[in-house]
Amino acid sequence: MTLLHDDKNHITALFSKSLDENIDTLSALFENCADVVKRKFSVGGANQTDIFIIYIDNMIDKELLEMNTLLQLFRDLKEMPETDKFEYIKNQGIQTVDLVEVNTIAEIVGQILSGDTIILVDGYDKALKVSMRKMPNRGVPTSENEVSVRGSKESFSEALFINRVLLRRRIKDTNLKMKQLKIGTRTRTDVAVCYLEGVAKPEVLAEIERRLNEYVIDGILDSGMLEQLTERNTYSPFPEYQSTERPDKAAAAILDGRVVILVDNSPVVIVLPTTLNSFFQASDDAYTRWEVATFLRLLRYIGAFLTIALPGLYVAVLNYNAELLSPAMSLSFAAAREGVPFSVLVEVIIMEISFQMLLEAGVRMPGPMGGTLGIVGGLIIGDAAVNANIVSPIVVIVIALTAITAFTVPNEPFASAFRIIRYFILALSAFLGLFGFIIGITCLLIHLGGLKSFGMPYMVPFAASGINHGTDTKDAMLRFPFRKLRRRPLFASKDERTKLVKREGGKEMEDENED
């Protein structure tokens, strides 16, 4: 092991011109690997030479290997020349487009583990890589976590090559670049950085590449691990990245000048940089009329505020600022709490934790019952708690409304941050009343104002509406008519901000209303 690898698990074995030595090296590297297939052949008639084929079982197309590559080698290489046998095999014996020379043992091992077939020739310190991958995958699935009423139903899959195709099919532009690199000394996970050249900011690309290469890690198994590795606001609950499983949403982000990172074996991609406003934009907002999209966005912002504010506001008003309520409402609240042995704060904590446990159990429960467990279980437990005088009906309403409004935010990591902040607001409200509630909201806004995502202020365009003459607010909390959205957001390069222009000589109604 020590002769073949260094202390960082990098392969140090050298390529030899002796086929037997190379076979011994590869056999040692793949020792006790039952899924690795190795076979030695002799081809070439009178001037025959030995070749060695190695691949991983069930990661290649065996029919293609046998009927194409092997059949050609034995059928077409009957008269092998005495010299330049490697070039002869390469040009005459293997008739395939994806044929690449590899020159190191480390490259050979990497290609084998990626699902390629390697052919070594005796007398040469180089090999041939033949691509005939056929890995198990579930094709193009349907989006389950980001459901939309209108638009594509496709979702990213675990296969990187499928995800690349899904983006290429939507953006047919040679400027769509996909830089591929490997991360993880043991997993060697393929990672693709996708962007529109000229539209994405070079400084953002440089920062992303720097962070991806900043650490040496043994393995990356999902995009979530890569997100945590590259983030800078480690102790903030708010993500500095946006994740999505929808190809149309990722393609729209690329067109806006953002960068999408694909990770092999992960159906969720990373979108960078991001802002607070981006998390409230659903994928089908662009497919619906501006009035509907604006109304739904306002609902999401209201829902996000309610999910962090309702429990704290309820506790603050009832414990410290009951004079804000009308006499009729005060009497109603007092009657509802009659017989309840706990304080308002304890009531809220009991129901809040119970609902969160039900939601988590619903996610983890297998089968179709999981989705209904949170709602049905909450109703049953809430009704039983009210009948037993453990909590008041008002608290059940507050917590249920709080849980429902959390789902109006169309991004799960961002919604989870609001669930955490809710307890911070609740604690301040419980100790300081309405004054503590205001302090909590103010601290939250200050914290959001100080965050950045790969150089982009988190509160753009709200806290920086003067930038670009405020035109970025046309697709923020409100969504202007589609023809008004002529410029890309601040994610894009300065020279590529314009995305919509009117054709010269084109006839169009309501020209006088155009900006």
Lay out the secondary structure.
Blueprint: H1 19-29, E1 36-43, E2 49-56, H2 62-76, H3 85-93, E3 99-102, H4 105-113, E4 117-121, E5 127-130, H5 160-170, E6 176-183, E7 189-196, H6 202-212, H7 223-230, E8 242-244, H8 247-255, E9 259-263, E10 269-272, H9 290-319, H10 327-336, H11 344-364, H12 369-387, H13 393-406, H14 412-450, E11 452-453, E12 456-457
Antiparallel strand pairs: 1-2, 2-4, 3-5, 4-5, 6-7, 7-9, 8-10, 9-10, 11-12
Helix pairs in contact: 5-8, 9-13, 9-14, 11-12, 11-13
Describe the model.
With 515 residues, the chain is of the alpha+beta class. The chain folds into three domains: 19-130, no CATH class; 160-274, no CATH class; 289-456, no CATH class. It is 42% helix and 12% strand. α11 runs antiparallel to α12. The protein is elongated, with a radius of gyration of 30 Å. It comes from Anaerocolumna xylanovorans DSM 12503. Belongs to the GerABKA family.
Radius of gyration: 30 Å
Structural class: alpha+beta
Number of strands: 12
Number of helices: 14
Strand content: 5-15%
CA distance, first residue to last residue: 69 Å
As an assembly, this protein is: single chain
Helical percent range?
Answer: 40-55%
What is the number of domains?
3
Strand order of the largest sheet: 1-2-4-5-3
- Which regions have little confidence, pLDDT < 50, spanning 5+ residues? 508-515
Instruction: Characterize the overall form.
Output: elongated
Q: In this structure, how is the largest beta sheet organized? A: 5 strands, antiparallel
Order of helices and strands: HEEHHEHEEHEEHHEHEEHHHHHHEE
Q: Mean of the pLDDT scores?
A: 87
Family: Belongs to the GerABKA family.
Organism: Anaerocolumna xylanovorans DSM 12503
Pfam families: GerA (PF03323)
Biased composition (Basic and acidic residues): 496-508
